[in-house]
Amino acid sequence: MAPVRDPNTQSNYDAWRTRHTMADFAVDFAAKCLRGSVVIELESQTDRASTEIILDSSFVDVADITLNAAPSKWEVKDRTGPSGSPVHIAVPDGAGKGEVVKLGIQLATTDKCTALQWLSPAQTSNKKAPFMFSQCQAIHARSIFPCQDTPDVKSTYDFVIRSPHVVVASGVPLPEATEAAGDDKIYKFRQNVPIPSYLFALASGDIASAPIGRCSSVCTGPNELKASQWELEDDMDKFLDAAEKIVFPYRWGEYNVLVLPPSFPYGGMENPIFTFATPTIISGDRQNIDVIAHELAHSWSGNLVTNGSWEHFWLNEGWTVYLERRILASIHNNNAYFDFSAIIGWKHLEMSVEEFGADHEYTKLCINHKGIDPDDAFSSVPYEKGFHFIYSLDRLVGRENFDKFIPHYFAKWANKSLDSYEFKQTFLDFFSTPEYASLQGKLAEIDWEGRFYTPGLPPKPEFDTSLVDVCFQLAGKWKQKDFSPSSSDTSSWTGNQVLVFLNLVQNFEEPLTVEQSQSMGKVYGLADSKNVELKAAYYQIAMRAKDTSAYPGIVELLGEVGRMKFVRTLFRSLTKVDRDLAVKTFEKNRDFYHPICRALVEKDLGLAEAESS
Ligand code: BES
Ligand code: ZN
Question: Could you name the domain of life of the organism this protein comes from (predicted)?
């Protein structure tokens, strides 16, 4: 038995592997919990060598576990750090290699569940119904049900969900059966493509849907439906066409987008069949839908071909950012869009490296995850350093050759998980055939170990700056103290061009004066922008300028969006200029934030209590 390669699971998945999972839950909005059962089918990997199955769990209330429908001996062990409380189930006779055993687990989630957020009707936009949603990546699925919570194991799923409100899950919806007790309806979904536990997803609430493409709908609250449809309908099929041309046809059937309430902690989450997305992408100008190109790209990188552990997370995100940029360049029919997005990404990478320190473990492409919570290691590093590594390979072998490698890689590893070394081997094997003889010298020079384990910034390539030159020019003018701005400076720009400009100003050696900051906000319409990306970037400049007149707007924004990209960066800056205001604002909005966001901001602000284990 090879030891397990994922340090963030306590499950013994070397001995048993989940093949199918049936989740049968009632959504109890009054008690704010899911209750019901999961039936997990596990295949023995050894010939009776293991007489125990160990699953991950975290704050789940387990009532009973049966083994092949008979009573079993089981125990939930004590918590050990971020990994949670392993559940041990005795399998007295073991099982022959390839034999399948069935665990039936009766459970309810608890108020300490880190994956679920429960919103009261008052916290939703039409105030009519409560809302709940899950976020399982990276290791939160174990707080919904005991499972082998590792991206190294994939299972097909059946969902049978009872709820008084519409349900969405990470499977293909089956015709709905209306019979159920009380107000509940039963919603069924099936996921026939094996998926890792972190892609398990559920949401329920007052959800309506409208078509946005040939196999796509957008789902969201009835009040937001029209705007959400408008935002996405023009580009959805274009994204899909572009992605299919770069990799190979989409394998999941439908691709839908669920636009969540504003406390959704990420920009997007690539839950299969239903990408979950922040409402901040619905900005009324189609300027923030790159997120959808990104989540769609995960249908190949991440969802079909998956990182074998969170130490190799760059394989998910670096590849996805690369595909996202290829998709954007393709739909604009202009390669400068690829570089433009990469320039913005480079800036994010620099900020992450600066935040951690250039020698920090978390600035490596492959990060040691032993004993750490993957949420703590999360940053732009796997995205952008991962992107730069993939892009460097693309440039090394040439676009035409790399374009042949892409479908090969995704077909070879489809429905499997891999680590960085398997990636290396796949790449080298592909280019080892005689037709690539002329590349051998270059291939031998790739410093794989250096790429995987050197902290800090990777080598910076030359970018095509044609879309950012105007941003540099305007930023240059702002360096001159007597510059008088006009709204026409930026009125014809894309949102991302304004963002690059703001990032440049943020990096000035000297902060802006209070007057400059105020005039920038007013003249360019930043403080009132519906584009949260721009508003948040502007507020960073205002805080650096110590422009206290901007603080009420910052506080207001922190009560309106729960996307961590904005919330964490705004709090980090706010606490530097006005600690009391930061703490007060956090406490006021504590219930509004998703548990994952709440926990991370608590740590960022130094408010977290040490975990008792
Ligand atoms: N899979 C990620 C979100 C994620 C990562 C959730 C790690 C939990 C743990 C998703 O695909 C993502 O990268 N979202 C980005 C979108 C952006 C890069 C376009 C986000 O949320 O900002
Ligand atoms: Zn992603």
Answer: Eukaryota
